[in-house]
Amino acid sequence: MSSSFSQRYADYVVNKPWRLLMLSIIVLLVMASGGRFLHFSNDYREFFSADNPELLAFDEVQNTYNKADNVMLVLAPENGEVFTKETLSLVSEVTDKSWQIPYSSRVDSISNYQHTVAEGDDLIVADLVSDTKDLSESDLAYIRNVAINEPLLVHRLVSPKGHVTAINVTVQLPGKVLNEVSEVVAATRALRDEILASHSGVKIYLSGLSMMDNSFGEASLQDMKSLVPLMFMVVVIVLSIMLRSFSATFSTVVIIAGAILAGMGSMGWLGWKLTPPSSAAPTIILTMAIADAVHLLVTFLHNLRLGQDKKTAMSDSLRVNLQPIFITSITTAIGFLTMNFSDVPPFHDLGNVVAIGVLVAFVLSITTLPALMMVLPIHIGKPKEAPQTNNSMALLSSWVIQHYKKLLWGMGSLAIILISLLPLNKLDDQFVEYFDKTVEFRQDTDFIVENLSGIYDIHYSLQQGTSGGVNEPEFLRQVELFANWLRSQDKVMHVRTLTDIYKRLNKNMHGDDPHFYRLPESRELAAQYLLLYEMSLPYGLDLNDQINIDKSATRLTVTFENLHTEEVLVYEQKIAAWLNKNTPDITFSAASATLMFAHIGKRNVESMLVGTTLALVLISFILVLALSSFKIGLISLAPNLLPAGMAFGLWGLMVGQVGMSLSVVTGMTLGIVVDDTVHFLSKYLRARREKGLDVDGAIRYAFNTVGVALWVTSLVLVAGFIVLGQSHFALNADMGKMTAVTIAIALLMDFLFLPPLLIKLEGREHA
Asked: Quick one: how far is CA 41 from the chain centroid?
């Protein structure tokens, strides 16, 4: 942008304010009206693209057997004993009522567990618990002994100590409407409340994939209700203090609101769904929309305090700032657009909508903002009341120039030290910990993991390959070998395998002789036992969740304690290697939500490296062109690239865990931190080229003219992302915290490292 164009544009804006205001209102109303098409999706599948290999594998397993989506109600009697008449009666009641939960296809509990016993030559299959009113002490002891010694129940539906028990409801969601999960959760909570109202002395905890799905939505909507208003309040307070002008603060708030409405409305027009990650968009747009406005207003108010009239002051501010804020808006948008390289589709939507919001904020800042300042009354103090911040900036610039060698080496050394800490970060995503401990799902799941069973599991589809092949003794032997090996592994809590049923049936058919608790010795016997058992099972409790239709494959499920991402990936490889070596006749596939989230974190890091690299190339090219200096463009890279590395190093020292959300931070923040550098260098070059100042003088000029704006915008950005860091949803919270740290470090580098670097590389022209 030439200075002549900037001047002509500035003159037009300040002379046609009402025309611009009316046009802005019309455009904003049209864009914002798209908000009526917005819908929230809390399906965890939204995190995965349609061609995600782990999702495809998971769908294949779910289509081969039944679905794994579920809600789990865990009953914890206050007396610490499940096996009493009262508690068992309650378990039976909850089990019966759980069939009424929408889309339920199966309900499993210790009460309806299909226990088998031998009566002469007959196999008796019946509920483990029935007629609870008539249970004697010996009956209770018998039920307890069966339950805590049955591999299919212990660590799955009942704790080894018998102090908690679970009712697991499998749901088959049609996937036709967005509120199916909400229906399931609402009905489950209503059932819980009904039980608690009529039964004292028991606590009920809720978990499962459907509860997790719903928590995604609830946490996100709660964030939107609390964080956006909080951020608005923070912005208003900061701007009021720093700008000391009601009209300027009001105008900035208008720009922010307009950018948010336009951005979210665009989501609706484009048919994008709100998801937990993209729900952070209003807070981020709110934060990002301020920068352009503040730069224009700081210069405008400074000019007014120097005695210029409103039109001249705004015209000069637009002329000076138009090119820098255009460049910074483009680079910021590029930074957020790098999210399209993420392997997580919701991050695409987040990046795109924030990019739209940033560009809308730019347009509003150079049209609506100056128009508003032209029509609104504004009170400016006497020239002697000029902002003291300028004096502090003058002192800061003198101190930086005086100590430039110490600062150059000191900040450079700090950067090297912090970047060297990068290896302390480890890839880690535990989807339960996506929610902070204030979220009900997290609280309940933590209790369940500690007292009953884990939520991290892997489903293995073990294929024999021929119809009825699951009855082959050699196949069953290898499955049993696999199950026993898994049970010997660290952090394995439970293994659900068909072979446990075969062993129990074989014992039953030999007069319940415990010596026959082993696999049948022939295919014929195995097939006969299985047929007899299946024919006795009631509706809804068949073996379709463990055996495919033609009985050529079986599903084995291994449940772990809480695992970190790296541990999941290690286990996956370890198990695959063991199967390939020890079960050569078995074809297998592995799938689960646990595997999906583990792989997406790793894949996201790899994909974002490409996006960040591309952003770096584009932004560097733009800076070289905009600054009209290859040398200065290269110098600018240092304060732009170093902050992210330093922030991740500091994160490694303080936290040490990098998950899905943090993988997008580098590209995103690259676009943000460039802003301060561009503004500083544009003022520096203006002083050098237009005013003929030496390096020291140009640095002082840059500090005095743009230092306040950099301080204000960075403060607001840091505050905004700290507010986002208070999100109940860890993906958004971590992203907010890391971005805040990166921006704070970037400001320090722009103030304390960039000027010494300029002095060193540009050279001093005087003693």
From this structure: 14
Give Cα 722 to chain centroid, integer Å.
Answer: 16
Q: What is the pLDDT of residue 483?
A: 96
Query: Could you check whether 1-37+244-386 and 391-420+593-767 share the same CATH topology?
Result: yes
To which CATH superfamily is domain 391-420+593-767 assigned? Multidrug efflux transporter AcrB transmembrane domain (1.20.1640.10)
- The CA–CA distances, whole Å, from 81 to 135, 151, 201, 309, 453 equal 15, 20, 11, 81, 17
Other CB atoms within 10 Å distance of the CB of residue 86: 14
What CATH class has 1-37+244-386?
mainly alpha
Handedness of CA 198, 199, 204, 209 (dihedral sign): negative
- The structure's pTM equals 0.82
Tokens describing residue 331: 């680079």
Closest alpha carbon to 689 in 702, 673, 674: 702
What are the residue boundaries of the structural domains of the chain, listed by start? 1-37+244-386, 53-210+437-591, 391-420+593-767
Using one digit for the tens of pLDDT, what is the confidence trace for 146-185? 999 999 999 999 999 999 999 999 998 887 777 888 899 9
Distance, in Å, from the CA atom of 588 to the CA atom of 610, rounded to the nearest integer, reads 33
How far apart (Å, rounded) are the C-alpha atoms in residues 641 and 437? 35
Residue 547, beta-bridge partner list: 554
Cβ–Cβ < 8 Å for 487, 154: no
**Given a cut of 50, is residue 384 above it in pLDDT?**
no
* Eight-class DSSP state of 37: G
Query: What SS3 state is found at 619?
Result: helix
* CB-count burial class (<10 Å; 0-12, 13-18, 19+) for 405: exposed
CB 309 within 8 A of CB 378: no
Residues composing the chain: 767
404 alpha-carbon distance from chain centroid: 41
Helix (H) or strand (E) holding 421: none
Helices 754-762 + 695-724 axis angle, to 10: 150
Residue with tokens 């109600």: 73
pLDDT of 713 reads 85
Structure tokens belonging to residue 576: 């695959």
E strand or H helix at 469, and its extent? none
Among 212, 220, 189, 186, smallest CA distance to 45 is for 212
Backbone phi and psi for residue 163, each to the nearest 5 degrees, phi listed first: -105, -15
Statement: residue 143 has pLDDT above 70: yes
Q: Do residues 732 and 664 lie in contact, with contact meaning Cβ atoms separated by under 8 Å?
A: no
Considering only CA atoms, which of 439, 294, 436, 362 is closest in space to residue 736? 436
Return the closest-CA partner of residue 208 out of 190, 195, 189, 222: 189
- Bridge partner residues of 127 (DSSP): 114
| Burial (CB count within 10 angstroms: exposed 0-12, middle 13-18, buried 19+), residue 523 | middle
Distance between CA atoms of residues 333 and 672, nearest Å: 9
Residue of 557, 384, 315 whose CA lies nearest to 458: 557
Contacts 24+ apart (CB under 8 A), 1-6: 1/322, 1/323, 1/326, 3/319, 6/318, 6/319, 6/322, 6/323
Tokens of 456: 């991290």
| Mean of per-residue pLDDT scores for the chain | 88
CA–CA dist 496, 558 (Å, integer): 6
pLDDT classification of 386: cutoffs 50, 70, 90: very low
- CB 91 within 8 Å of CB 111: yes
546: which 2 tokens?
């463990």
Q: Rounded to an integer, what distance in angstroms lies between the CA atom of residue 528 and that of residue 551?
A: 13
48-57, 318-327, 573-582: range with highest mean pLDDT: 573-582
